[in-house]
Amino acid sequence: MFPSTQTWFITGAGSGFGLEVTAQLLAGGHRVAATSRDLSPALKELAQQHGARLWTAELDVTDPQTVHTTIGQAFAELGRIDVVFSSAGFGVLGAAEELSDELLNRQLAVNLLGPIHLTRAVTPWLRAQGGGRIIQMSSSGGHVPDPGMSLYNASKFGVEGFFESAAVELAAFEISVTLIAPGGTRTAFNANIAQAEPLPAYEDGALGQVRGALAGGMDETALRHAVAGDPAKIARAIITSASTTPAPRRLVFGAAAYEAITTAWQQRLEALTAQRDLALSSDADDVLADRA
């Protein structure tokens, strides 16, 4: 059971969900160790408002040594950290063949390797204090394919796989893991998305439509419904989840995300079920004989 006042460590706290969660925690009387690659004006303003309850540090999650050092400093100065919220991330739009090596490496370094570095760094500290929570930003893109988002989807599918396994390992130490899977949300995600250099071959397909929508070519009503998630509501639910026992393994946010993930899982289960006989028949003959 967590104390009524919690201490959180947050990456990507300068904007988006990281900033929203930070602001709500501080307004609720909690302590926050807020980290970001650059300390944004909004984060600096929160520091002026809340004083010692907000601990800040610049942190690039792609630098493993700095991650370990910053984690050590936070635990040393704050004592106990109850919740680690891994929020740093960004999106890349582009067909697989359009992607530059730089975009590929940066996307996986921030969205996938960054959370892995963070988890490796915080685990010894959480074990030593007898437990805690890790809350990891995932996405509906960790379950549902999207045209032009193959690299982003790869990072989020990877996050899902890593934390599903890590959660089993960490449970013995009273360390719980929750994955956050929102759909389109009204943060600056779309405005800040990195785009690969387009190839003419993709202009008339699904990817071209996505690019057109991002460039302002979508009907206003359709856009409102496609990007419907309320960051403040989601942030409140994330904070609430940290005091929920047992910890939810995954929280899905948004009607579109819920429906898309449901459909994807159902289709996979149907395809798997149809292959049952083939799967069982591929075992070695001695195993088949034992099973007969």
SSE blueprint and pairings:
Layout: E1 7-11, H1 16-27, E2 31-36, H2 41-50, E3 54-58, H3 64-78, E4 83-86, E5 92-93, H4 101-129, E6 132-137, H5 150-170, E7 175-182, E8 194-195, H6 206-217, H7 220-226, H8 231-241, E9 250-253, H9 255-274, H10 276-281, H11 285-291
Parallel strand pairs: 1-2, 1-4, 2-3, 4-6, 5-8, 6-7, 7-9
Helix pairs in contact: 1-8, 3-4, 4-5
Structure characterization notes:
- The structure is a single chain.
- With 292 residues, this protein is α/β, with parallel strands linked by helices.
- The chain folds into two domains: 7-253, Rossmann fold; 257-292.
- It has eleven helices and nine strands.
- It has a seven-stranded parallel β-sheet with strand order 3-2-1-4-6-7-9, sandwiched between helices. A two-stranded parallel sheet has the order 5-8.
- The longest helix has 29 residues, at 101-129.
- The termini are far apart.
Name of the top-level CATH class of the largest domain: Alpha Beta
In total, the number of domains comes to 2
Strand and helix order: EHEHEHEEHEHEEHHHEHHH
Quaternary structure annotation: single chain
**Ranges with pLDDT <50 over ≥5 residues?**
none
**Roughly how many Å apart are the termini?**
50 Å
Count of runs of 4 or more consecutive helical residues? 11
Please give the CATH architecture of the largest domain.
3-Layer(aba) Sandwich
Helix and strand content put the structural class at alpha/beta
- The coarse overall form would be globular
Beta-strand proportion: 5-15%
| Average predicted local confidence, pLDDT | 92
Predict the CATH topology of the largest domain: Rossmann fold
